[in-house]
Amino acid sequence: MSRGKRYNNDERKLNMKKVFAVIIAIIVIAMFFIGMKELLKGSPKTNEKTFALAYYTLYENEKWGVIDTRGNIVIKPEYEEMIVIPDNTKPVFICMENVDYTNDTFKTKAIDEKGKQLFTNYEQVEVIYNHDENNNIWYESNILKVQKDGKYGLINLDGKEILACTEDNIEPMLGTKSVYITTANGKKGLVDNMGKVIIENNYTEISALTSKYSNGFIVKNEQGKYGVINNDKTVALEEKYDEISPVSENKMYVVKEGSDSKIVNTDGEEFLVNAFEEVKQINTDNIVVKVNGKYGVKTINGVEKIPATYDDLTYTFDDYYIAKKEGKYGIVNEKNEEKLSFNYTYIKYLDTIGILQAETENMESELLDRNLKVKVKGIIAQINDDKNYIRVRENDEYKYYNFKLEQKESKEILATNTIFLSKKDGKYGYVNDKGIVVVDYQYEEATEQNKYGYVAVKKDGKWGCLDAKGNVVVECTNTLDDVLVVDFIGKWHLATDINANYYTK
Prior knowledge:
Structural class: mainly beta
Shape: flat
Low-confidence stretches: 1-48
Distance between the termini: 38 Å
Radius of gyration: 26 Å
Number of strands: 50
Number of helices: 3
């Protein structure tokens, strides 16, 4: 990677502005408001409640800046690109100037919320961004890539050196947090976010077995052979294989050696030699395999449990598998018995909360418990892992459920809110926590408060914004039909187009 170049050729195909700004939309859509969290110092209280302080990208007049969650401009929009570093204690913004998209060169500087330049002893200061296979993007929260004398190193947001500027390049490992690939003299190694060397610079390629780097790494040597190294530097598999697939978390590996495809373990035992085209999952002794273009399940010893007749097959829990056939999804067990009919456009298992979400053709979803009982039915508007609730639109009304799929009042779920969405005679308004109307029923659409106290309201086809007391901040004058998610921070609204996501007027 040449000096000043942020991405390899494949990564560079991502639209630069989208890369730098799409995190905003991701945050809003998932309601994971990443930012600088502290109490709103000096701000007036509303019903003795305060809202968190954060910073977000501002785009105005084709320039980038920063706003806070009071709606104040923190950094004037005067930069070609801007990145807000997510951190819990220290606001740091990376500004880009003299950006040449043709040659992929740029100049950077790091500044704080007062505009003071930071880390001036480095030639370049860059964020470390990463993305998974679905192109969900995140930034490393407390670490920066820096350049000095043409070499790269790592520092934290306090400016403390984590890794000296000795590397020809530093890049994230795709889909894996807090671990970074270093390159020196054409050889790759691995360090963590504390600067600890996990793998020396001895390899031509390094990748993670899974998103949890504790499960180990696939390495490729100069002879073109692959092996597996544990995160404690011990060897799990010798470097003798032509391919290794990253599917296992249980010390069993899918490999290709010569013309043979097989599963091997750390004891050198071999299983299912040339008995599959692909291995999708390894669950104890049960293996989801692809044979003749279809998916089924075999035991590690080759006994067929589910015939390879499905277009897709994914293990979930107990003996249940999400299966796809003829364009529809259902659930089968290990005896290939149909346990949930093939009537759905998609099914996914929310493993962190133990719930199945089955989507129908009309955009509705059924939420099922582990007994495959339908507990909730409607349009899933939000699954909030921060406050452990699910927001569902049922018959044009929003209802709230905890992760046990028990219905709750909004004031129970949204305890930090000051006003609550209410509907009467087909119109929306707001009530306080005692049920008293504080905003009349006059809006055709409206949202609950975001994390910073603002609500979006729609009247006569136009959107506006109210504050935490229900006062008008922005009149309903904004046509936002092309915006994926309507959200306001003060007078600024979230905008989304093909190139970028940002806050603007």
